[in-house]
Automatic annotation (TrEMBL), chain A:
Record domain ABC transporter: where: 6-256, 302-552
Quaternary organization: The complex is composed of two ATP-binding proteins (GsiA), two transmembrane proteins (GsiC and GsiD) and a solute-binding protein (GsiB).
Designated name of the protein: Glutathione import ATP-binding protein GsiA
Catalysed reaction equations from the record: glutathione(out) + ATP + H2O = glutathione(in) + ADP + phosphate + H(+)
Keywords, sorted A to Z: ATP-binding, Cell inner membrane, Cell membrane, Hydrolase, Membrane, Nucleotide-binding, Repeat, Translocase, Transport
Automatic annotation (TrEMBL), chain B:
InterPro entries xrefs: BP-dependent_transpt_permease, MetI-like, MetI-like_sf, OppC_N
GO cellular component, one term: plasma membrane
Membrane topology, from the record: Multi-pass membrane protein
PANTHER family the UniProt entry points to: OLIGOPEPTIDE TRANSPORT SYSTEM PERMEASE PROTEIN APPC (PTHR43386), PEPTIDE ABC TRANSPORTER PERMEASE PROTEIN (PTHR43386:SF25)
Family: Belongs to the binding-protein-dependent transport system permease family.
Protein's UniProt name: ABC transporter permease
Membrane-crossing segments per the record: 32-54, 97-122, 142-168, 206-228, 263-281
Occurrences of domain ABC transmembrane type-1 (ranges): 93-282
Biological process terms in GO annotation: transmembrane transport
PROSITE patterns: ABC_TM1 (PS50928)
Amino acid sequence: MTQPVLSVSNLTTSFLTNGGWKSVVRNVSFSIAPKETLAVVGESGSGKSVTALSIMGLTPPDRSRIGGSIKLESTELLKLSPARMRHIRGNEIAMIFQEPMTSLNPVLTIGSQISEALTLHRGISQREAESETVRLLERVRIPSARTRINEYPHGFSGGMRQRVMIAMALACRPKLLIADEPTTALDVTIQAQILDLIKTLQEEEGMAVLFITHDMGVVAEIADRTVVMYDGETVEAGATAEIFSDPKHAYTRSLLAAVPKLGSLHGIDQPTRFPTVDRITGVAKEPERRANTVNEEDRPVLEVKSLVARFDMPGGFLRGPSGRIHAVENVSFDVRPGETLALVGESGCGKTTTGRCIMRLTTAKSGSILLNQADLLALDGRALREKRKGIQMIFQDPYASLNPRMTAGEAIAEPMLVNKLADSAEAYAKVGELLKRVGLLPDMAGRYPYEFSGGQRQRICIARALAVEPRLIVADESVSALDVSVKAQVVNLMMELQERLKLSYLFISHDMGVVERISHRVAVMYLGEIVEIGPRAAIFNNPQHPYTRKLLSAVPVADPTQRQRKRSIANEEIVSPLRPLDYAPPKRRYRQISPGHLVMDSNLDRVDLMGSSNRGPFCK
Amino acid sequence: MIAGNESIAVEAPEQTRADRLGAWSILVRNPITVACLFVIGAFFLMAIFAPWIAPRDPVKQNYLAMSQGPSAQYWFGTDRYGRDILSRTIYGARPSLALGVLAPLLAGVAGTIIGMLAGYFGGWVDRVVSRISDVLMAFPSLLLGIMISAALGPGFTNLIVAISFAFLPRFIRVARASTMSIMAEPYIDASVASGQTWFRILRKQILPNISGPLIVVATLWVATAIRIEASLSFLGLGTQPPAASWGNIIRDGLTEMLVNPSAVIAAGFVVTLCVLAFNMVGDAVRDVLDPESRD
């Protein structure tokens, strides 16, 4: 056996807090062989990122203490001087981060940022550095690299920036690449491209990769071996295939149970809850089959007809608009009582704008939105407030969607008081009931939002939405920001509430795994239009539109045995719906595949061509 | 049993935010701030209980004891009308502190309302309000105070109006900008969706969240208000003699400063001490409530 590139033993990292030293990582040991990919997986607060920072020596020196040993080949990193460590960083170990949008300096060109790393670490001339930069950008498959080195980061999309970050990391041919959640902020199709790229580059360059992630799907896709962390400790370590097929620890089991697996609902008509696993005993409980909540005969709660929303892009000073974003273009669908319609697509596809138009939070340009046959777009003032309470919304960020100065109880009581559904005493009595209904305790009503965790806050948001007894809830990426296991719990809660209250959901999401669990029907949006809509089974088992297929094939499968064969590394980007002012949207026709399953009659290539360039959304 | 109950045990809420420790307990941790608070407290007690504390009537002239230096009888001496400077200085705290509290309070209330409306509604309301406050901002507060009190005539009420006007744009700006940033928060969307009217959203959702920076602005401008009152009274536009004010004590003492400096020194000292104490407390409040706005 060759010497491992990195061996970490008994790593313990503590931080100085108000109450003294607090260990965040305890006794973590692992090693990475050359050309190997090791995934460190865990939920927020598990200490996975601190492990990476400790290896890089990037924890604040005066407020942190690192114990144990970190060896890069045979060098003990913890004993190195800061100057030697600086040499190791970049030359021997490189790191890429989660946020590609903020990891690049916005006032320097891409080329100068990469060649700076080259001249600094490899001591080559400016001229050589430039040609090396072009070579590196070509390696990370950035098209027309020679011209793009003179551009600034704002002209690059998130995926392209992450490629630039990888190019920078590769600049000095490191032995070890640490990737800290490198694809978490990216769309699923872009994520697939970046994962493929990292895999290919690893083979080409022969480096070891330490991959830090919370996403079991990504782990299954990329890692040879896996370390599962929980609360600062390693709970399980081993070959990825073994961990997935035969998880030993109860925590690993509960984590795996919560991971949505695409295709796991094959042959089941109704939405199905996530299985629950007891964290202590590790005993799994399969979810019971769900009763049908939808009656085909019922009149839809919500009917959206030919909804259009466009935004003008401001031109320069004293000039008219320079272009127009066709955010939502001729979108029609309906939602029946007790039904969940999922609206899926990637960032910028118009799914959130559709949701906001329905809530009248964004002004639609034309179309109609019928809630129980009353057109919301035609209403105003008091009448609108009266009708609108039939729809409520749950937002993505559970931290920002509660007023920090209001207690949970006040937040939940407020909608009842405003709509005069209850007087003060009744409202507060109902708050306790609602808290219980969403799985919290009634005496939590007096607490402020900062006293709750993310999942609990999202439950409070659900309770607040339920307070006015809505028929429909628009859930805009409501579980996307939550940890896997918490996500499963909140999704299960939403399904339970649907059964009990016959709620309808418009579930806006990019997460196909969750969508498969929760939805009755799915609408796929692309560039502001619905390209395919139909029953969940039809969309997932018989996708017709090329974009739907692409979206589904990009989802990482949380099963290492089904690891997808390497695709050719695509480098297309998400196309922008920014159009010239005189753009007239083409007439669309839909083809019926089976009852209720409609697909747009056009091919993706044509759509792509009209979407124009391969650049960032605002480049002309 | 709801599947989610386990989450209560599993997820630990993140650490308590510093501003929840209570602004007051952080404030009183600094001994200098505590000392300044004591000074301010003493000034207020002095202003409120002036009739009991002051040894003599501050406006009573005594031609037998004019322009005297400090003595056991007159601790700070007397001015050229034979009035007791100690008593005048004690009474002088009244207009200074009344104005120092009332002007920022008035400007704060009016500016917050105007600024929140501009920030909430945007559009032409915002454009009109912003341009007017830009124009007001272009004048230094003291100059604006002089202009307005010159136009309205001297007097205490006019002085409050003048200084409040001069302070108004500062509050409008802070209230408007804070409102606009809170407007982007999803909980405002949630409030709109649950049927709240704009008035209720401003009152219950936005106001509690922007009060921190506004309190900071108010405390910082108390010191300025006291200084402006002293300056205007010194110029003869503020508190009118024979009523005592720190500004007009200095003005009266100026003519004989070279022979009998006790009036100028006494009033000058209390103005400096008072302004300094309010400024230090204002800075400390800002550091606690609104640390980002630090220069």
